[in-house]
Specification:
122 residues, 5-stranded mixed beta sheet, single chain, alpha+beta, Tetrahydropterin Synthase, Chain A
């Protein structure tokens, strides 16, 4: 089988402020965060699919903190870097438990359409 990858995109709306930061982002503000989650396809089912796209996307969306104040939702300073690392760890556990034909490869977290953090498997 060739190297194949499955990617799903989702978004969530959430507010935060950055602790220990000097500047505008120290004040409460919100974003429409976009997440891209990429998986390496390890195998195919009898029907020729790795996993059902809809089910993978629903699973990803179920772990996103939509309409939350992220400073209260997470137990860390909610920078894009910290959020992306947390999402990677969460999606990695989810993938290993529920998606036998996929392996998590990367998470891309867009704080704005022009800026993102990428966390990749080592």
């Amino acid at each position: 089988m060739n190297n194949m990858f499955l990617e799903v995109r989702a978004h969530f709306d959430a507010a935060h402020n950055l602790n220990n930061y000097v500047g505008e982002c120290s004040r409460l503000h919100g974003h429409r965060w976009e997440v891209k989650v990429g998986f390496k396809i390890k195998g195919l089912r009898k029907d020729g699919l790795s996993e059902d796209f809809k089910e993978v996307k629903e699973m990803v969306k179920s772990f996103l903190p939509d309409h939350y104040y992220l400073n209260e939702y997470f137990n860390f300073n909610p920078t894009a870097e910290n959020i992306a690392q947390k999402l990677f760890a969460t999606f990695d556990k989810m993938t290993k438990k529920f998606l036998k034909n996929l392996a998590l490869e990367y998470v891309e977290l867009y704080e704005t359409p022009e800026t993102k953090i990428i966390v990749r498997r080592k």
